[in-house]
Amino acid sequence: MDQSPVPPPPLPLEGLTVVAVEQAVAAPFATRQLADLGARVIKVERFDGGDFARGYDTAAGGLASHFVWCNRGKESIALDVKDPRGLDVVRRLIAGADVFVQNLAQGAAARLGLDAATLCAAHPRLVAVDISGYGAGGPYADKRAYDMLVQCEAGLVSVTGTPERPVKAGIPAADIAAAMYAFSGVLAALVRRGTTGRGGPVEVSMLDALAEWMGHPLHHTMHGGAAPARTGLAHAVIAPYDAYATADGGRVLLSVQNDREWGRLAGQVLGRADAATDPAYATNAARVANRDRTDALVAGALGALTTDEALARLEGAGIACARLRDLHELAEHPQLAARDRWREVGTPVGPLRALLPPITLPGGTEARMGDVPALGEHTGALLRAVGMTDEEIAALRRDGVAA
Questions:
Q1: Distances in whole angstroms, Cα of residue 147 to Cα of each of 135, 154, 160, 245, 385
Q2: Which of 73, 278, 360, 376 has the fewest C-beta atoms under 10 angstroms from its C-beta?
Q3: What is the pTM of this model?
């Protein structure tokens, strides 16, 4: 009987090629997911500086943190796609691709013939994705759309912050939402291609994506008549569900989801077993109505404990809780370390730490976390791959069409 080990199955997108004319976050983050799962991703960048996200900051060892996050595992070709010769190269690349993704300014892809409808008509097996701010039609179609602007238009800012002041989310939520729907849309279209033989267009707008993520407050408002109040770290309709200071300067967030949990919190943590049946606290509705008194009761008890003591007592009582961490603490999170979630990714400035992608395929090949490319690092190889001679390549470089 053969006892030799069975090799792990390949990554699910192994053998697929993606071409992306992309910039900023939404499209690059979507295609990075595809690269992590094994796809070959060819990133077409501007010849004069590349993806403008390369210049956002220099925090990642001299590189831009957004760019490092969103662009590992890709090949970079730098072209002037407004020049017919540069556009011809892109079309040659697309002819050999399975997926095309673009998030150019509204109308720009159509003017170049790189919109999803045009490309899918020419290449029936191609999955082509148009990512936009507000969609192809309607009064906002041509409006500039950056993440924070869409957060405002989608109402996210209106429900985030304190009663006195709305604030944006601390991450590019609109970009990420659009990226993840583009990613899942590509996967769905590839499954359909596997059964029908045809790819087809995929359209994702940042506003549509983030409006979907606003589902709870949106439905609460549409059907309940009032928007949820901005409550900082507190939950708008559950109490206690907030962060409380501890004796050593930390903060602990806890969540009581039902009245049974409140009874345990009151008796085992707060030392106030009577509060479990006191009409002012006995139900969630009462605790919300008396939020100031509820919070004062919890804050008084936790404020006398260190962070570790408070967490131990809450966990002992079966109360959901968390330590309020900053980003330095996240980078050293014991759970991420214990589960071996960190890897090193090659970059033009040397290796940098990066998290494994959240999709884990147990028993399979680990996610491919390739290098972050320098601008135009693969231009020469890719031009040769589409049939160009060294003389033709030299002419493109000399004329500023390729870099």
A1: 15, 10, 15, 32, 36
A2: 360
A3: 0.93
Q: What is the radius of gyration, based on Cα positions, of the chain?
A: 26
The torsion of the CA quartet 226, 230, 236, 240, rounded to 10 degrees, works out to -160
Q: Exposed, middle or buried by CB within 10 Å (0-12, 13-18, 19+), for 19?
A: buried
Phi, psi dihedral angles at 73 (to 5 degrees): 75, 20
How far is it, in rounded angstroms, from Cα 339 to Cα 395? 51
Please give the pLDDT value at position 150.
Answer: 97
- Cβ burial 159-198 (10 Å sphere, 16+ → b, else e): bbeeeeebebbeebbbbbbbbbbbbebbbebbeebeeeee
The answer to whether the Cα torsion of 24, 25, 30, 36 is positive or negative is positive
Q: Which residues of the chain have pLDDT under 70?
A: 1-2
pLDDT in tens, 253-276: 999 999 999 999 999 999 999 999
For residue 159, the 8-state DSSP code is G
pLDDT for 2? 64
Q: Cβ of 298: how many Cβ atoms within 10 Å?
A: 24
